User: Fold these one by one.
Assistant:
Number 1:
Amino acid sequence: MRDDMLIDPSEGPAFAVLRPGGTSDVVLICEHASKTMPKALGDMGLDEAVLESHIAWDIGAQSVAELLSERLDATLVSQRFSRLAYDCNRPPESPGAYPERSEIFDVPGNIGLSASDKVRRADALYHPFHQAIDALIDERLAQGRSVVLVTVHSFTPVYFGKLRDGHLGILHDEDRRLADAMLDAAASARLELVRRNYPYGPEDGVTHTLKRHGLTRQIANVMLEIRNDLVSDETGQRQWAGSVADLLETSLERLKTEGGRLHA
């Protein structure tokens, strides 16, 4: 492997695409799908338990996203390496893209990175991932198709020692039309503990993917956060994928009825 390469060709590409020919308007994104660390970064100075924890990936999110992809026949773009190597829901200029500390854990492998180190990380992980999403969405829009952006995440039930009792967060930035429709659908379905911009909101810098790909193109978009203990096994993953799919289908039908198209 060349010295300037972060990912060896034997490790595969930075991202994976499932159902590239999906017929759904929905394009699914999973930025924190994997706990895999690029071999060049070793263990980042962390022990195995930490590398298995929520700071390395969104537990259960990829499995839920894959089930949603199957149910909806939706294309899914996933990051194949850990958020600790590069958090693809942050732009390269953000310190959070290369977190020196995540919740209560220091990340030694990210402390004191040089500008060239950060460029190397972004070139290997961030840019290929987001360029793939750009290409996918722009191709569909050029074909005259409607596109809806849905990012899938999970959150830890205990954060800095505080319990989070919510089940599902429906997050948005300036464009709230899909989030509003999903929250209304959740209320009608009597789903409990579904909350707006929970456990984070735009002020926490978590809507980068929505802004880069959704707001810039004026396409409907939403970010989903499911508490990770609810999707840590196959039963929970199937249950929540089904619930989310129901909410999406109901909401998209409502938006189409009200507005005719899902983008400007």
Number 2:
Amino acid sequence: MPLTARVRTRDGWPVAHAVVTLTDAAGRQVLRVEADAEGSVHDPAVLAPGAYTVIVTAVGHAPAAAGALVTDEAAGVQAGTVTLARQGGAELPPPGPWTVDPAHSTVAAVARHLGFSSVRGRFTDYSARFEVAADDVTASRVEAEIRAASIDTGNAARDTHLRSADFLDAGRHPSITYRSTGLTAAGPDRWTVHGDLTLRGIRRPVDLDLTHLGTGPDPWGGTRAAFRATAELRREDFAMHYNQVVQAGIAAVGTTLRVELDVQAVRGTSLPAG
């Protein structure tokens, strides 16, 4: 068993086609092997006893290196599991397409009311997809569409008013859309998503503060990832000027909205039943 290794991300996902290089004590390259689609390496070459350095590299990931000592030709180098971090130290789910599952996600907006309390609403009809880029994770893309008329605050009269031209103007502008323009790492599991939000037919740049909460298997045989994201919107940026002034000059509705997203996404382009 001369050289074996398993290359994984911090979340335990295989790093397909990572390259494992073995150098001797003089720094000369002795062996160079590409991992398979499951991130596994096995090369039968016989290695002479001595000290070696195992170097593992992969596009979009920071390299890793470790020392190895071969005392017996039959034993070789068993590198075990080598963990690679995303370039820059930030993690996202495995590359490829992902589809947001509305049944296990929440798209909410919070507004200040009377200057001292909050009113919370949520949208019940929306779809979203994103693509995690393999080589340069900052090139990942997000697209979402929300049906404006699906706003639900738990009060029918208020919801009707929110759908009117005073606020969402859902009759003339039935869709709210968001399309990303870039991604910036803000920490090991945090990102800033840069994008354009179109609301009431008006497009404005809006950044989302995104946290990756983890990735793992689901009960239906798929893979899921969870995220939390927030953003602040100014109503006037989208021509929502309606307000009432109550006593002491306090506005009935705050000038800003806080968007709160709790999202589950399924790996792939379709959603499972259940």
Number 3:
Amino acid sequence: MAETGNPSQSANGHEYTASHIQVLETHEAIRRRPGMYIGSTGERGLHQMVYEVVLYAVDEHLAGHADAIDVTLTSDGCVRVTDNGRGVPVEVKEPGGKSAVERELTEPSFGSGPHTGYRVSGGLNGVGLCVVNALSNRLTAEVHRDGHRWTQAYEKGIPVTLLTRNEETDQHGTTIAFWPDADIFETTHLSFAALSERLQELAFLNGGLTISLTDERPERPVRYHHTDGLRAYVDRLKPYPPSLVHSPAIAFESENQDETISVQAAMQWNTWSQGEFRSFANGTRTHEGGMHEQGFRTALTDVVNHYARRQGHLSANDEDITATAVQEGLTAVISVKLAHPVFEGATRTKLGNLDAGAYVHEVVSQHLTDWLHRHPHEATAILRRILNTAI
């Protein structure tokens, strides 16, 4: 990262020289402009630090190598995240070079995934751990891999110890413990409620993954594990008292032939509430939507109208049912995972991948159409609910 001197001086010509250019080390650049990387230095940015480390562990789960993540908030302000994956690689490629652990914690890759080469990555496109390290007063990495326990310590993004090989072990996995820097953040107090909500969300999005959260300030452990995935998520989001048009929720998933995009979706109509819709991309909530949402909503409206006309609920002269009527009373969750996500803005709240929108439209059209034909009684009840809204 480079910064320049006063622009007015450069306008005078000879006063602007190479001496005005300041080259910052990666950790210095991150510490100087933290909002560019985690959105803010308030509570939102503080919690994003935790999510970045957790999402790195989720990547191990998505790669098929981890099924448990433990998050602990300690009494001295530390956040400790442990997974039972393979462990971050520890080898050094060149003589005298950095270990793979140190590269993960100090070098941003800005690629489609971290240095360890995940096909799908949920963090900040390869810079997550690097950012967390730079914005922490202290950070320790403990890796169980290659028959030993390995450790290394950092301060404000700078290694203060070498990667050390310790005793032999047959365990595997990674533990990242960090203390957010009070000189960077407006507060270093983490909300148990906010973390609990987000971690449960990740458990819904990644069926079969167990995520535990323990707060030692005082102690209050919770554990999340949902084998039913998004269908369980929809069940949690449904209004109370429930008044369902059909049960269970419609759920399906699919992955494209190139294995670059996968889609999971679940939806359920109820009779009285307005409903709720949530979308995610690589585990991150896309509050502003994006192409995957657009593909879902368009396909949903198209399928309902096509089915209604084929079943005689709409005549040739009737206008199409509106998207608003179709979505009234619908609780739905859609989650896409992409090898090459394109997010709009540093806070990653809107997905811009055109191919994601097209694939979601294709998947929803195929699977929802098939479900409606295989469940005619439930389909009729859904259409009746929608048509009553449209009147």
